[in-house]
Structure formats: structure tokens, C-alpha cells
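Listing S7. Sequence submitted for prediction.
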Amino acid sequence: MAAHAAGRAQISSVQFWPSITHSLSSTIAREKNAATALQAGQHHRNIPLGRQRCSALRSRLQTWGRPRGASEHPLGATKVLSATIAVADLGEAARRFQHIYGLHPSEPFTGEVDGWDAMLVSFALSQSGQHFELAVPLPLSVDQDVDIEHLPGSGALARHLQQFGESLCRMTLAVESLAASRRYLDEHEVTYTLREGVHPVLWIHPDYACGASIVLHEQPQ
């Protein structure tokens, strides 16, 4: 895994969908309040039922693509694959989101394929190939005395939870060419971490992505 740091200049020409961070963070807080109210036997007139919530979330993800009026995204992004929410208790959170959205979580799986110390569950959104995930730090990564600030560094997810609580921690995009994406990022001095291998993965550091890491996967040809 290699880290690339080419200065600290911010780039205003790339739109990293800041509305994703804001919308999902608001959704998390709203649904946690709704779940608390449901447990207390209260009635929320403004909270739609599970199927309506699922439809709204799926619609929101499907519209997060290329900026309006743009024929081509600067990074070559073609699709939002997923959004990942950091949680403290994976089992409890999976049950809560299943109750809220009426979706069934996957079996837990590790974040090894993307090179980070996490256990996750995934909720598929219809047949779109998109999903949202819940992620919890692996126990061994929580106690390690390391000084890596950003995902996917060891211990970074635990620090994210300590600092921000249950919140959006990453979003994953499909891109046409990872090499082309890297050239663009290098030209604009954006810091990222590259995990090389059979299936390379690139993590754009949250300082350049509105507070949540952006992960790039090259789409299969």
C-alpha cells in the first residue's frame, strides 16, 4: 500500500458530491431518532414507512452520479457503488437499519479486499448494483497504538467513530480508468492512498472529499 501526498492544495474544480455527506449524516440522525421513538411507542407522522424509506434512499443514490450538465466526470466516475456508515455495534445497527428500511443485511464480511481493518454488512438496493454498508472497526485495530490519521490506515475507523460518532465514513465510486484518475489527482495535488495488487483500490483522503474518504474501483471491462 502506497500513500501519495503531493501538497495540501484544495481543488475547487472537482465536485465530490458534498450533498452525499450532508444527506446521509442527516438521514442517520433522523432515523436514529425515529428508531428511539418507535421503541418508546411514539408515533412519527413525518417518518415514512420502511418501503418508502428504502425507495427514497435508492432514488437518492441513483441520482448521485455525474454533475448535471457535465458530459464527463474529471475522475472518470461512472457510478456511485456504495456509501458506508461507521457504527459502534454492527449487530444492533444492522437490526435497526433492517427495521427502518425493510432490507435484509448480508452476512458480515471483512474489509480485506479494500485494505482496511473493518467488519461490514451490506444492504443491496434493488437490482441496481448499489448498496449501503455498515462498518465497525475490527477489535485488533482499536487497541493498536498507531498514528495513521486517515482511512484505510490501521485504527483510523476507530478514531473516526470517537471523533464523529455514527456517520458516513466513505463512499465508493466506479471509474473508467484508475490510471487516468491517478493522473488527475496528481495534477491537482490531491492526497490519496493506493492499494496495489490484483484489484487495486484508491482511497482519496477525507481532507479533499468533504470529510469522508472516497474509494475508487476500476469498473470491469
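Caption to Listing S7: primary sequence and predicted C-alpha cells for the chain studied. The chain has six helices and nine strands. The helical segments are 18-39, 50-63, 90-101, 139-142, 156-164, 178-187.
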